[in-house]
Amino acid sequence: MRRAGVTPFLAALVPASLLFAAATGSVPLGWTALWHALWGHGPALDITILWRLRLPRAAAAFATGALLSLSGALLQVLLRNPLADPYVLGISGGASVATLASMLLGLGGAWPELNAFLGALASMAAVFGLSHLRGPWTHTRLLLTGVVIAAGWGAVISLLLAVSPASDIQGMLFWLMGDLSYPRHIVWAYVALATGLALALPLARGLNLYSRGELAAAALGADVRFLRTAVYLLASLMTASAVMIAGSIGFVGLIIPHMLRLAGDSDHRRLLPDSALLGGSFLVLCDTLARSIVAPMELPVGVITALIGVPAFLVLLTRARLP
Prior knowledge:
Radius of gyration: 20 Å
Largest sheet: none
Low-confidence stretches: none
CATH superfamily: ABC transporter involved in vitamin B12 uptake, BtuC
CATH architecture: Orthogonal Bundle
Strand content: under 5%
Structural class: mainly alpha
Oligomer: single chain
Distance between the termini: 30 Å
Number of strands: 0
């Protein structure tokens, strides 16, 4: 009965978090002013703040959080590791290198976001190809390949920061820590989220079997090879989309699926949509704190997710009693 009430609660949390984000900021909107601005009435400043600034940013935050959380839920099954994170396979590193290189070369417009997506795809292809090179695929081999490539990208990022002009450093660091100040490609984010969820849900039964082990899944009729490839590609593409929109934001894909699993949400037919709902709402609330806690200054949203995620995950580890 308690598990049956999780999804309706998370569905109700989505509009609540969006309304909280719309009302909160350096210029607070009361509920009456917010209601009038939603319908296009009231002062022009309130309407502009709501429809041009806060709602687009909250919508981008929800899509980004949902993409990261859904990717984390898939990767934790694929790698058979509850500590797996969407960025553990070096996807974020490839996107970061491509974006920072774009900034260093002075490319404006949509080039940084496009190069972030292309860099993430290139890193994904490298990890997938090298993990299949000269030997059978295993989740351990995939994980180790991703960790090594992520370390290599980290070295390149340090090099790019070292040679960059001082005037560009702040923008680069904000992107590396997650930045939703100027959200773009929001439509693409929701297309990626809807497509990813639609393709992941038919895999839920196979994921339930795969979580018991590859041999058990194969014995029960699951196509293990197809499942591994599909899950990796889906998780990677959704992570690439999230990085393209908001930069590198940690802990969302790590703690949200893990939290739901500890709450008893182990069936992937429920876990996947629940992860998207909770991850999206969580990032909306974190972004609201990032732009209002020291207003009028803004913090990178990745700082807030880390400050919340580290103690929360330590508590989860304690409750799980993992060895």
